[in-house]
Design a protein that fits this description.
11 strands, mainly beta, globular, seven-stranded mixed sheet
Length: 120
């Protein structure tokens, strides 16, 4: 069964950090642009970041630039999202997605998501 497995979510205080991981089950991520979208309660899903498959070029939403960093380890077939200086407005379910677009508007399909809660 082909699926995406996210991990690393949790509860963190404002200003804290978390690292999300995304691994492919039944396939490898190496040949795909992989990214993260998020959805907060009552809000539409929004693109957070995307990393290309070939040259590792990265793309970020304005709201997370300078605070989040996406990376990939093709030997482990894993994509990471390092989230620093977290804010309460970062609270959302974060989804790993395949074939994300550079404008962070589209993707092919995603995982089940992992909850990130930023609260004091």
């Amino acid at each position: 069964q082909v699926q995406l497995m996210e991990s690393g979510g949790g509860l963190v205080q404002p200003g804290g950090s978390l690292r999300l991981s995304c691994a492919g089950s039944g396939f490898t991520l190496d040949n795909y642009a992989v990214g993260w979208f998020r959805q907060a309660p009552g809000k539409e899903r929004e693109g957070v970041s995307c990393i290309s498959s070939r040259d590792g070029k990265t793309y970020y939403a304005d709201s997370v630039k300078g605070r989040f960093a996406i990376s990939r380890d093709n030997l482990k077939s894993t994509v990471y999202l390092q989230m620093n200086s977290l804010k309460t407005e970062d609270t959302a379910v974060y989804f790993c997605v395949i074939r994300c677009s550079a404008d962070l508007e589209d993707y092919d399909w995603g995982g089940q998501g992992t909850q990130v809660t930023v609260s004091s």
